[in-house]
Amino acid sequence: MNPISSPIISSGPLGMPWATMDPFLFCVHHVDGYPHGNGKYGPAKPLSGRNIGQDFANVDGWNMYHGQQVPGFPGHPHRGFETVTIVRRGLIDHADSLGAAARFGAGDVQWLTAGRGIVHSEMFPLLKTDADNPLELFQIWLNLPARSKMVEPHFTMLWSEDVPRQVVTDAGGARTDVLCVAGKLADMTPLAPPPDSWASAEDSDLAIWVITMEPGAEWTLPPTRGAQTRRALYYFDGDGATIGGQAIAARSANDLRTDAPLVIQNGAKPAQFLVLQGRPIGEPVAQAGPFVMNSEQEIRQAHADYQRTGFGGWPWPDMAPVHGDDPTRFARHVGGRVERRES
């Protein structure tokens, strides 16, 4: 194939985390086959032999991450970027230094603008004591431009019932389902991102789509709106797909052409893809762990500010709060407004 007309600019295997391109900073796909719960929201399995507090070894197909008794990520700070968390299976309990809290899952999306600084926890409570507690989620870090690095933090829930989907059946009767977390697709308009997000900029051309294809399905990825837009296609489940007539490897990250429609043709097995696209912010990136700024001086200032202020303190009784036995999904926003959704 003529490399000039190739639909794939570059391709490589999925790592841990997945490689991203501006305006994205980080993407990870957590899949954990958690066992029955122990009645205290942790696994009913011995934790001996695990590096508790730093458990990423995937022993028996699951991790404790930074959790001590409950899997997950106890309170930790962020500044200068956003997290977009898409939960496909299982539940996450969120708590933060603003006083906001949530229990979400079943396709829900949490979009958190860290801005000038926030501390939050993300715990994975194992509520079922008579069955396994599988968890699957994406966490995506989206950069903020310099003008928005120090905005007020903002907590947004996009409930699964409200997130638009495009469901297309091709000429052969095979179906493709596209979850539109961000970015307009055909005649569908996504839910509004946080106000200071790069996704809210009119010319950002930002999209986050999760694509599920039946065996043999065909679906056309549309061109982007802007010539500067970059698009990554992560082929994380399946085998035997092609894009624009070119085979793509299973478990691969692919930097795609964006100036023309590209037909994705699935093979004989079900397939899943994640699309991350956007116009690059094009600014210097200085990163030190949970802080992402434009210069090393700003990183030093972030550390100093966190040491001095704790980004508002921590209003919870411990660093890994869990929100009880009730599986009902909910969000309690800053100011006290509460949303509830059925489990």
Automatic annotation (TrEMBL):
**Listed InterPro entries:** Pirin, Pirin_C_dom, Pirin_N_dom, RmlC-like_jellyroll, RmlC_Cupin_sf
Does the UniProt entry include the keyword Metal-binding?
A: no
- Is Metal-binding one of the keywords? no
The EC code for this enzyme is 1.13.11.24
Top EC category: oxidoreductase
Residue ranges of the Pirin N-terminal domain? 63-142
Q: Which of UniProt's keywords are assigned here?
A: Dioxygenase, Oxidoreductase
The Gene Ontology terms for molecular function here are: quercetin 2,3-dioxygenase activity
The cross-references to Pfam families, in alphabetical order and at most eight, read:
Pirin, Pirin_C
- In this chain the Pirin C-terminal domain maps to 209-312
Q: Which family does it belong to?
A: Belongs to the pirin family.
UniProt-recorded name of the protein: Quercetin 2,3-dioxygenase
Q: Which organism is it from?
A: Duganella phyllosphaerae
Q: Species lineage, top-down? A: Bacteria, Pseudomonadati, Pseudomonadota, Betaproteobacteria, Burkholderiales
